[in-house]
Amino acid sequence: MALYIGLMSGTSLDGVDGALAQFNGEAITTLEAAYIAFPPSLRAELMALQASGANEIEREALAANQLAQYYAQCVAELLRESGKQAQDVRAVAVHGQTIRHRPELGFTRQTNNPALLAELCGIDVIADFRSRDIAAGGQGAPLVPAFHQALFSKQGQARVVANIGGISNISVLSRDGRVAGFDTGPGNVLMDGWIARHRRQEYDADGAWAASGKVIPDLLAELLKEPYLALPAPKSTGRDLFHLDWLDARLAVHRPAAPEDVQRTLTQYTAVTLADAIKAYGGGADAVYICGGGAYNSVLMDALGTELGKQVLVASTQALGVAPNRVEALAFAWLGYRFSERLAGNLPAVTGAQGERVLGALYPR
C-alpha cells in the first residue's frame, strides 16, 4: 500500500483542493480532504495572467512561488488532519494553475513551482501532467476520464461522469469498457465572472441569483452559435475561449437585459451544452453523475435534469461514495500513482494522442 496526495486548482481560480489517498494496487481509499482558499490578490493575478500583459514572465514566476506556498499549506493540513507524516507519503501530485491552453499550437501552460513545493513539503513532487500528451499529438485534456473509468465504471452499466468546474467535461463509460470524453464548453466560468462583475461575489451560491432571473431565449440561441460546440471530439477548451470579453461581444448585439436574467441564461447555457454533449456521445446511459462545484448549484442541476429528461438519473458523485469536490484532487493522486508505477495516465481515444503515455515529471524531495 502507498499514500499519495493530489492537489488541484482549477479554472475557477478560487483555491486548491487536496486529497490524501491510499492505493492498494488499483483500489483507492480516500483518507482525508482539505481546501485552502486563495487570497483575492493571488486570484486577481492569476486571472490577469490568463491574457498577455506587461512583465508577465516575472509576474508568472512570482505567482508560481505563491501557489507553491498555498499548495504546501494544503499538504500540511492533510497531514495534520490524517495524523500522517511527510515520510509516510510517497509523492504529492500537483496539477498547477492553467493560464494558457493551446493544444492546437502544441502547448499548454500550468503555472507552478514544483521544485519549491518539494522543498517546502519534504515529499517527492510529481507535476506537469499535460505536456507529454500534447507532445504525442493529443489535447492534453481532459485527463480525468481515465480516472473516472478506474473509480466509477461498473460492468454492464453505461454511465456518464460530468465534471462541472470552470469548464465542463464529460467521461462516457460504456457498457463494453470503452471510454470517451472531452470538454463540452463552459461550466461555472461565465457565471462566476458575471456575478463577480455585478455583485462582487466569487460564485452564485446554489444558483440563488440565477433563480431570481429568467432565461432569455434569443440570448441563449446566440450563445449556442459558438463554433467550438460543433467541433468533433477530441477537443478541449478553457479561459482562452470562454471569458467575459467573449460574453460581452454577444451581449453587444442583444437588447439590454437585467443582470439576473443574464445569469439565469448563462446557467441554462451550461446545462444545455452539457446535455447536448451527453445526448450525442452518451445516449443510453443509465445515469449521469456530476462532480465539481457545479454539483452544488441546484438551479444548474435541475436545469440539466430537465434537459436530459426524466428517464436519466442525474445525481452527484456522492451517490457513488465520493464527494463532488474531492474527485479532481483524487484524480491527480491517481495520476501520481500511475507515474510512480510507470503506467499510462492518458486515454488516446479521449485526448487524441498517438498512444498511451506515462504523464508527469518528478521533483525529488
TrEMBL record:
Binding site for ATP: 10-17
Pathway annotation: Cell wall biogenesis; peptidoglycan recycling; Amino-sugar metabolism; 1,6-anhydro-N-acetylmuramate degradation
One Gene Ontology molecular-function label: ATP binding
Chemical reaction(s) catalysed: 1,6-anhydro-N-acetyl-beta-muramate + ATP + H2O = N-acetyl-D-muramate 6-phosphate + ADP + H(+)
Keywords from the UniProt entry: ATP-binding, Carbohydrate metabolism, Kinase, Nucleotide-binding, Transferase
GO biological process terms held by the UniProt record: 1,6-anhydro-N-acetyl-beta-muramic acid catabolic process; amino sugar metabolic process; peptidoglycan turnover
Enzyme Commission number: 2.7.1.170
One Pfam family in the UniProt entry: AnmK
InterPro entries named in the record: Anhydro_N_Ac-Mur_kinase, ATPase_NBD
Function: Catalyzes the specific phosphorylation of 1,6-anhydro-N-acetylmuramic acid (anhMurNAc) with the simultaneous cleavage of the 1,6-anhydro ring, generating MurNAc-6-P. Is required for the utilization of anhMurNAc either imported from the medium or derived from its own cell wall murein, and thus plays a role in cell wall recycling.
Family stated for the protein in its record: Belongs to the anhydro-N-acetylmuramic acid kinase family.
NCBIfam families: PRK09585.1-3
Protein name (record): Anhydro-N-acetylmuramic acid kinase
Gene name in the database record: anmK
